[in-house]
Design brief:
globular, binds fructose -6-phosphate, aminotransferase, alpha/beta, glutamine-fructose-6-phosphate transaminase (isomerizing) activity, Glutamine--fructose-6-phosphate aminotransferase [isomerizing], 42% helix, 12 strands
C-alpha cells in the first residue's frame, strides 16, 4: 500500500503532483481566465458585499490560512483575520455584517475547529469549510464545502493536504478578486497558466530529492534549526519548522525574517542551520540582508532559491533550488523542499516517521 515507498509520508509528498492536479480539475478555465467553484453557495452579490474574512484553523491548516490571509488581502482587497481556533472562542470575537468565516481542516474532525465554527455560526455568520474528508463532521456544520482532492493521507504529518489547501485558497482569492473587479480575466489567464505548471515543477523538485537528502544528513544532529521567510514565505517558514519538529524531534523555530533582529538572533550560534526562503520577489533584497545578519553570527545559511538565481550562492552556504515560477505561486514549490528536508532529517535520525510520538492524525479533544 506504500507503493514501494519506505514511508507514507514520502509517498504522500510525491502524490502532491497528482493531488494538486486533481484539486484544480474542472475549476479553472485558462481560455476564459475564470475560476469555477460551483460548491460555493454564495452569489456574486454576496461576494461583492463581503467586508471581512475570518479564517479558523489549527496547526498546519493554520499555516495554510496564514498564506490565505495574504492572498485575500493582496488579490481581492478583503480584510482578513486569522485565528488559532483554541484561542478564538475565548476572546469574545467581534462579528460584523458581511463577514465570512473560512474553516480549514484536512480531517474535518478537529474539535477546536468545530467549536470555533459553531461559535461563528451561532451569530448567523456565513461559513465555508476547506476539508479533505467527504462526509466529515465539519461538512455538516457549514454553508459551503470546498474539497481538496488529495486522497487519503495516512502519515500523521500533513503534506499533500496542506498544498491542496493552499491550491484552493489561491482559487478562492482569485475568484473573489474577479467578482470584485480587482483582477482582469487576462491576468487570471496568466495565473492559471502558471498554476497548471506547478505539478510538473513539483515533479522536478522530487527528481532532485537526493540533494535535499544530503543537506538533511549534514545537519541531522544540529541542536536546533531556524526557518526564515518574509511575506508569502513567512507561513511556509512556520510550516517548515513544524514539519521538522513533529517528525525529527529536533528543536525548530520559524520566524518572519525581519523579526530575527528583535530577539531570536540571540539564539544563533556558530553552525546553527538557518533555512531561509530566498525566492525572487518584492522582499528578495531584504531577505539577502537578513542572510547577511545570520552569516555575521557564523550561523549556516541553507537558502531555498530559484534555479536561475546566480547571486544567492555568494551568500548562502547551501542552496536548494526550485524551478522558476511566479512570486505568487512559489510557496507551493518551496514547501515541498521543506517537507523533504524534514523527512530526510527524521530518516537520518531513525525516527518513526509516519507515527511520530505523542501525535495523532486528528485531534478530537479540545
Ligand atoms: C501537522 C498536522 C497538524 C494538523 C492540525 C489540524 O502536520 O497535521 O498540525 O494540521 O492538527 O488538523 P486538521 O487540518 O485535520 O484540522
Amino acid at each position: 500500500e506504500k507503493a514501494g515507498y519506505e514511508h507514507f509520508m514520502l509517498k504522500e509528498i510525491h502524490e502532491q503532483v497528482s493531488a494538486i492536479h486533481n484539486t484544480l480539475a474542472g475549476k479553472v478555465s485558462e481560455l476564459e481566465g475564470t475560476i469555477y467553484l460551483k460548491e460555493l453557495n454564495m452569489t456574486e452579490d454576496e461576494i461583492r458585499r463581503l467586508s471581512r474574512i475570518q479564517i479558523l484553523a489549527c496547526g498546519t491548516s493554520w499555516h495554510a490560512g496564514l498564506l490565505g490571509k495574504y492572498l485575500f488581502e493582496q488579490l481581492a482587497g478583503i480584510h482578513c483575520d486569522i485565528d488559532i481556533c483554541s484561542e478564538y472562542r475565548y476572546r469574545n470575537p467581534v462579528m460584523d455584517d458581511g463577514m465570512l468565516a473560512i474553516a480549514i481542516t484536512q480531517s474535518g474532525e478537529t474539535a477546536d475547529t468545530l467549536a470555533a465554527v459553531r461559535e461563528v455560526a451561532s451569530y448567523n455568520c456565513p461559513t465555508l469549510a476547506i476539508t479533505n474528508v467527504v462526509g466529515s463532521t465539519i461538512t455538516r456544520e457549514v454553508d459551503s464545502v470546498l474539497y481538496t482532492r488529495a486522497g487519503p493521507e495516512i502519515g500523521v504529518a500533513a503534506t499533500k493536504t496542506f498544498s491542496t489547501q493552499l491550491t484552493l485558497l489561491y482559487l478562492l482569492a482569485v475568484k473573489f478578486a474577479l467578482s470584485r473587479g480587482k483582477l482582469s480575466h487576462n491576468y487570471v489567464k496568466g495565473f492559471i497558466t502558471d498554476l497548471r505548471k506547478i505539478p510538473g515543477q513539483i515533479q522536478q523538485i522530487l527528481n532532485q530529492k537526493e540533494t535535499v537528502k544530503e543537506c538533511a544528513e549534514a545537519f541531522a544532529h544540529a541542536k536546533s534549526y531556524f526557518f526564515l521567510g518574509r511575506h508569502l514565505n513567512y507561513p511556509i517558514a512556520l510550516e517548515g519548522a513544524l514539519k521538522l519538529k513533529e517528525i525529527s524531534y529536533l528543536h525548530a523555530e520559524g520566524f518572519a525574517a525581519g523579526e530575527l533582529k528583535h530577539g531570536p538572533i540571540a539564539l544563533l550560534e556558530k553552525g546553527t542551520p538557518v533555512v531561509t526562503i530566498a525566492t525572487k520577489g518584492q522582499t528578495y533584497d531584504k531577505v539577502l540582508s537578513n542572510i547577511k545578519e545570520v552569516k555575521a553570527r557564523d550561523a549556516t545559511v541553507i537558502a531555498i532559491a530559484g534555479n536561475k538565481d546566480t547571486e544567492i550562492g555568494k551568500y548562502a552556504d547551501v542552496v536548494l533550488t526550485i524551478p522558476q515560477s511566479s512570486e505568487l505561486l512559489s510557496p507551493l514549490l518551496s514547501v515541498v523542499v521543506l517537507q523533504l528536508l524534514a523527512y530526510y532529517t527524521a530518516l537520518a535520525r531513525g525516527c518513526s516517521i509516519d507515527k511520530p510520538r505523542n501525535l495523532a492524525k486528528s485531534v478530537t479533544v479540545e
